[in-house]
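Morning, I've got a small favour to ask if you have a moment. Here's the protein in full, and shout if anything looks odd to you:
***
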Amino acid sequence: MASAAEQLAQSFNFGAISKATELKKRLWFTLGALVIYRLGTYIPVPGIDPDTLEQIFQQHSGGILGVFDMFAGGALGRMTIFALNVVPYITSAIIMQLMTPISPQLAALKKEGEAGRKKLNQYTRYGTVVLASFQSLAIAVGLEGMTGPSGSAVIDPGIFFRVSTVITLTGGTIFLMWLGEQVTQRGVGNGISLIIFSGIVANLPSALANTLELGRTGALSAAFIILLLLMGVAVIAFIVFMERAQRRVSVQYPKRQMGNKMFGGESSHMPLKVNSAGVIPVIFASSILLMPLTAAGFSGTSGPEWLISFTALMGRGSPLYLGLYTSCIMFFTFFYVAHVVNPEEMAENLKKHGGFVPGIRPGKNTADHLSYILTRLTTVGALYLASVALLPEILISQYQVPFYFGGTSLLIVVTVTMDTVGQIHSHLLAHQYEGLIKKAKLKGRRG
């Protein structure tokens, strides 16, 4: 925890940041992109009665639609151009990652390096457009069938409203996808994660105010609110600890004689994180569950009987919802780590550089040993992600605590913050090295 605090202090050394021109440009670009995103969450979709929509949404906000609205930064509740947020893009990325090992063509593209990666990204974008179009149409049809105390949510239902809604919502998702990619390339941090992060953080003050209001009206006791805040702090501390946790595998390098000198012989270690997947499995799992349940939530009681029954069984805190959520998190954790960390490649790189794990033969035996360690670490990481995501879910379903104090939102906020701080720290180190190199060159010329 001390090293993390030191890194945080160094990363937000504003004096050092002000001298790093490139980092300043990246930070301003990131801030500007997030401001544009937040402004877009207040631009409404044409043809909707906002007062009626607010009344209808309040009836469903305690369920799965409230979770979706959390990811959308409140854009769904206001039915704005960014109502779908980046969920279709994330879902498309999941499908592409699942299809890559199955399809020989996609697997071949993955092995082509940068060119293949660009091609796969292009397919992901195409998939985003298709998914966003279907989800936009489902929302448009659902809105036409929704009525509140003051009438229909749609002012003028019909084909024009459906087409305009599909174009507007799909265009909003495509814009956010492009904006996220620009932030990743020209800003600081992962753009898609930062978009979700900013939506959650923007609604934290109102969530805190709602919680205090529940305490004022007597719906929640003061002791419970204090306990809730302490639980939030404890969850954050636990997340930081687990994200920093790693298993260090000892690596030995043999001695080599070059001329009259001996080189090598030193021992090192290979750090393997307990949670190599980060927050991705939780976002993936939430996206998979939200896709069918969004349509179910909008259809209300007008849908088929099986859909109504499914929605009832998938209520927040229900055994089926918790079971599916846990299964999805566990699956995507193992799936993502299997794609990101390759024990065979790690063992091969060790062998090329003459390194070996003490007591383990190089090559296949080393790969099997690393795979065994990774499996155990990933099991712990998957259980950690599931526990952080599910335990607050139960409290939310029982005590109607705002979603923004749940484990999923805290996990995303803390993990994205740590990742962004780490990247800022890396840019500062690079800037310092550049300064040292320039000084060394000047001294060399003077000498």
Q: What stands out?
A: The longest strand covers residues 246-252.
